[in-house]
Every structure is written in structure tokens, then in C-alpha cells.
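thoughts on my protein:
***
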Amino acid sequence: MSMILPLTSYEEIKEKSVYGRYLSHEMVAKYLESIKQEFEIKEVGLSVRQKKIHTITLGTGKTKILMWSQMHGNESTTTKAVFDFINFLRTDAESSRQILENCTIKIIPMLNPDGADAYTRVNANEVDLNRDAQNRTQPESIVLRKVYEGFSPDFCFNLHDQRTIFNVGTTPKPATVSFLAPAYNEERSISPSRAISMKLIVAMNDTLQKLIPDQVGRYDDSFNANCVGDTFQMMNTPTILFESGHYPNDYEREETRWYIFQALLKGVAVISENKVNQFDLESYQQIPENQKLFLDLLLKNVQSLTGKKNTPNSCAFHFKETLIDGKIEFVPELQEEIDLRKFYFHATYDCAVTSDLQALKSQIYYPDISSSF
């Protein structure tokens, strides 16, 4: 069966209570309250600041899938897509019923609620939870390991966002979605569990290439035993890293949200139908690796904007995601002493061209740019 849900059908199940980049613990709690009559919601621990961490359990099948999102608090796109996926499973679609019959899915929608509320990568103790897999010094790390050991999953989905800097290979295509089958040793050998991870990524890539051709990347597979994905791969559980990236003009990551939903749906459907081995390992290696060749904005003829003769002719900006009054603002930061010829840009304006200057002035970040010089 086709596992691409048309956009019109997707809009019907898209969770309307969450939108944009900022997703707080309170927003997640409200969503959990809305589905508690249909699925098992369980408190499994507390964060550093004593915020509740929950799991959602769906389905009754023998194949077990564990997902967790917002391990990094400022990486919310996959959480939105997970809610959309849950809403799909609430429908009476044949594929939804089949997934729930064949699989048991346990989801931690927000592992790092303190980081989510503050919109930071780290937790309240300023620890990166994805570098705490071995020592487990943080309560959130302990929660994840406890859930993993109690559930004994057959598959793990480790759900993240990546920055706008990533492109696919050497091309000017943004890495809108990236995947990784984490290594389980320094040699990056292909263990049985890693091979399964690779095949499942190939399945999801096949679907995404129909939607965003050449905009899927493969994340760096350097081994780090302190990373959760590498650790679970070492424990012989096929684990997949999802990275939600940039789509043109989609800083709120609502387009990317749809593609992550499609990847989740395809991946779980392939598992449900026991079709993972229909996909080949070689195709995984053919997915281009990510590179960091993008900046957000290039301005040409900048003197036309500033009126200052000592202003450089061209300059580039990276946007810093900043939480201001409960909303994420994209604050431009001037990138100095870089070779602009080595980068691609998500937007380019020529300040000497009237239409470009008018378009630039219509952007929310324009008032901050002149002060950068």
C-alpha cells in the first residue's frame, strides 16, 4: 500500500494546538490531556526542575517501537510530527488499524521539559542529555534508560532537529531531513542491528525522495559511546536518528514537520508489515552526507542599505533563534572574516535593487541588520 498521505488528508489530522518553533511543557501537557481517554498516558519521572515526563503507549502488537523527542529542548519539529502521527493512528484508516494491531509504540514526547521551556539544547543543569548515555548523571537520562529497559524495544527512533547550516553533499540543496544509523564501535562496523537501521532509513528515504528530491542527507556516523543512539545500537537495538532540517522559507518548520510525519508513517508501516529486509544496505551509503555550507542571508551592495562608506560590499548573516516573550525570533548575526564564495545562502538580496530592498525591508529581521555594522 502507498504510505504517502496526501497533503489534504494530512491537514485533517495535523495537530492544530502546536505550531512554530516554540513548544513548551504546558503545550505538551494539554495535548496529552486531550488523548488520555484513547491511549495510555503514564508519568515516568521528573526533570531537574520537577516537571513531569510522560510516555504515551499506543497499540497492542508484538513488535515494540520506542520514540523520544525533545531530548534537546529547542528541537521541537519532531514533537509536532509525532502528535500528527498519533492523530493519524486515531483515525479508522486501514493502515492505522494495522499498525496498532502489529505494533506497540511507546513515545516520550518531551524528554527535556526544562530545556523546552527555556528553548535551550541542554537541560536545567546545562548538560547535553545526548552526551550522558553512559554516566547518566541527569534525571532525564535515567528516565530514558529506565523506559528503554522496561519496554525492551525492537526499534528506537531518536528524534531531533538540525540547524539551517546543513546542505546535502556538495549541492545547494538544504538538508530538510537527515538520518543516521548510529555506529556501535569505533570502526563503524555494520552489526545486525545497524544493518536493520540502515534498511529502514532506505525505506523512508524512498518515500521522501518523491516529496523532496535531493533534500535528504546522511548524518555523520562518528562513534561516540556517550550518545544515546550509539549506546542503544551497542545494546543490539536498531536505532535511527531523525534530524529535522530547513525547507526554503520555512523557519517555523511547518513544511519539514509534514516530511517528518511522512517518514514516521513509512518507517512504522514497514516495521508493522515486516518488510524491512526488502530494502538494501547499499542504498543507505548512496544517501549523500550532510555538509555545513549554508548561511541564512547574503546582502550585496550593503552601502545602499547603511549609507556608510566603510560598510563591506557584501556580507552574510546567520540567524540566532532567540526566545522573546514566548516566541522564537530569528536574530541576524553578522558573519565576519569568512570567504563568502564557499557558502550557499537561504536568501540573497541586492540592496542596490529597489525591489530587493523593499522585499528585505518587509522581513521581520530587517530592523536589526543596520545595527550590525
Observations:
- The mean pLDDT is 94.
